[in-house]
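Supplementary Note 3. Input sequence used for the single-chain structure prediction.
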Amino acid sequence: MMSLILIPDTEYELTAIRAQGAGGQNVNKVSSAIHLRFDIKASSLSDWLKERLLHLKDSRITDEGVLVLKAQQYRTQEANKKDAIKRLHEIVNAANQVKPTRYATRPSYGSKQRRLEGKTIRGQIKHLRGKIASE
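The predicted structure, written as discrete structure tokens, is reproduced below.
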């Protein structure tokens, strides 16, 4: 298992913005949503991990290689900050995971026989549904 990667606070930028959606007067007055900007190319991550992150098919990564996350799930700015940082770490650590190579296998002789037996039985059932020949 790969070790978890922690990103220093100095490598991402947090900006408070107004949240979207319903919320009454509170949503118009309080900047509780958070924009997190993480420059992948300028980060201290390994070159291998930077390449993996930049090649993700993720709309949150800009053409300049900046990952932009918007956190507005919670009512407080502090909770949204924690959520944005947690999501950033999840994205980076998910890109760090390498799936093991899958090797092709063949079905066993017994499984082939059971499959063919099932097909034969099913065919007989369907054959019996046909019209009865009269003499």
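Residues 9-96 form a domain with the Double Stranded RNA Binding Domain fold (CATH 3.30.160.20). The beta strands are 12-17, 33-39, 66-71.
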